[in-house]
């Protein structure tokens, strides 16, 4: 079968698998329409290409892939534990099926297969409800609706399904996959995203067949840990590396060998590598297998094809045996084996055919990997290695071949993963090529040293530690390079996420460079390369320069607003540390925001100020900072002021009547203090912010008769409490927006009676306003999202 035919069938399979997200029969209609159209058009334009029957068969393959993915997509069964959620206190028994790891909030997490559940949360041994006096804090992503009425039974009943568990860190000490455990805690349904561009926790778990989570309070072991298994290999390797190279160098060495998911690297070290553009070496083994495969090919370069193949298989098989054959490593090794088979065939198209067929086989085995970023990046990086590494290395002919190969590998991988990276993250590391070129020799040598150390550690841990000790300097230099890269100007730059058509067009141009030899003559490849750069960066730059939008994120009961207009950015409040780290920063990144021109804090309490510390210490620059601080200031806010002063950020406290004129479209005024009342002019609308609505504050407002006429505004923005009729009449809003988890019913009824449109973040999620769309909520987007 010709390579072009195989590629068409494989592409059809991929497209069909991706189309599976379309609802009902829409995917079938879309695939039939596009497939039949292309089967008629392409043979007429490409007369030397495959016949029409190839495209028609491709349509059949695409339909099969779509239906296959839908059939294999997990669904909760009749006895799934999610049927009991939400419950505030339950006891669950089951088996740990995934090794425990750490969350960013320093809690332990793992996945367990449920066997029994006691919905009442009462221990049969004591008959006393296992309810602590102070519940453990629950991450925002785990928030759910109020618990339903709980059954009064104290008996265990059969249940099934997998459960995502988080527990205090001390509870997972010594816990192994395969152990039976009993957990008490709060059962919840994973929530969908509450903010634009936020991580969809619910979909992420559902694709793993998990439909419920448990925020555990206590854990009791029901069985002894297994005496031998994958954990034993990993534990031996990690102990040897840490014993020999110390912390964090030893942990980094383990990550190079086993992948970041198998080793809990310190969060600050992980962030350093991600920011420097070196995240690939910490990923789930894709980069490691690429290095193993590249080195194996280099070792057998002078031998016959059979020798090269045998050396490659030995290296990949040994690596798989060493790491315990976890799913992520298994996926990468099989991909590496497929590319190895293709490389030794020595026909230009064959390596790619072998790689694509390998990907198809993997997706038949586990079709949901089609949505896994690790799978996608691994595939693209390996594809780049096969198609582009050798041509790139030819431009480094003045270097020794081994060094030229080491340099060309990260460049090829970066080029082919860049469009997907911008689509997903909207951020690039400016010096990533420099960082990879400088660290690739160190990482490659260290990886092989770590593998040798790992093999010896399986036999005798101190012997493996002795070998790991030899590589301490290389690991230390690697960390220092990452830290140095991050000190360079604009080391990490947000460019904003692109549209999917931009990504597809960019990959079409990259494919043209690879497929058409004409581009390699007289350096004509510069033309499509320049077009790729224009596609990825210019449309976003133009859109950002012309964007006029107001975003109100969803976060507890704190009013937060982001305003973008004519390249100017205003941020009002930042939330707490967790919100700023996991929601606000990624949102700014995807919006392409690297600088906040005006940062305004309406309160000095930790819930209002902790997030500023995250932003000020991150990659987002703050030009001007304004607040309403007066009198005694809490210690966290004093720390923030000192941090801003150290960065030479102008900081002032606003006075009553003070106004900030950002441009012709945006003006912010502090109408009054005690309580603080802000009035915004944003485009054609006037907004009034009442950050405090307690009874005392409202009486103070009513007492100031000269203030009431100034309250008139088109939009009322407050925290969801009851507002006195006199104040509401003075404001006379057309729209009311509450940054609150809930709004009391009398207030909602009062607003509806006055024909005011009412939104609140707890119900509607985040919301946006723009002159074109007016007010638009996240729930509108989720509920009215077209399957097309």
Q: Could you describe the 3D structure shown?
A:
With 788 residues, the chain is an alpha/beta fold. Helix 1 packs parallel to helix 11 (350-365). It is globular and about 95 Å long. The model is unreliable at 125-152 (pLDDT under 50).
Outline, from the CA principal axes? globular
N- and C-termini, Cα separation:
34 Å
Classify the secondary structure makeup into a structural class.
alpha/beta
Strand order of the largest sheet: 15-14-13-12-11-10-23-24
Report the β-strand fraction as a percent range: 15-25%
Largest sheet: 8 strands, mixed
Radius of gyration from CA coordinates: 29 Å
Q: Can you count the beta strands?
A: 24
Arithmetic mean pLDDT: 82
Q: Please bin the fraction of helical residues.
A: 40-55%
Poorly predicted segments:
125-152
- The number of helical segments is 26
List keywords for this structure.
single chain, 788 residues, alpha/beta, 7-stranded mixed β-sheet, 24 strands, globular
Summed up, what is this model?
With 788 residues, the chain is α/β, with parallel strands linked by helices. It has 26 helices and 24 strands. Strands 15-14-13-12-11-10-23-24 form an 8-stranded mixed beta sheet.
Write the layout of secondary structure elements.
Layout: H1 3-18, H2 26-45, H3 52-72, E1 87-96, E2 101-102, E3 107-118, E4 157-158, E5 162-168, E6 180-188, H4 201-206, E7 210-221, H5 230-245, H6 249-258, H7 267-275, H8 286-299, H9 305-323, H10 327-345, H11 350-365, H12 373-394, H13 401-425, E8 427-429, H14 432-459, H15 461-470, H16 472-487, E9 492-494, H17 500-515, H18 526-546, E10 548-552, E11 561-565, E12 568-572, H19 577-590, E13 595-600, H20 606-616, E14 621-627, H21 635-646, E15 651-653, E16 659-661, E17 666-672, E18 677-682, E19 685-690, H22 695-703, E20 715-718, H23 725-731, E21 735-738, H24 745-753, E22 757-760, H25 761-764, E23 767-770, E24 774-777, H26 778-783
Parallel strand pairs: 5-7, 12-13, 13-14, 14-15, 19-20, 20-21, 21-22
Antiparallel strand pairs: 1-3, 1-6, 2-3, 3-4, 3-5, 6-7, 8-9, 10-11, 10-23, 11-12, 16-17, 17-18, 18-19, 23-24
Helix pairs in contact: 1-3, 1-11, 2-3, 5-6, 5-14, 5-15, 6-14, 6-16, 7-16, 8-9, 8-10, 9-10, 10-11, 10-12, 11-12, 12-13, 13-14, 13-17, 14-15, 14-16, 17-18, 19-20, 20-21
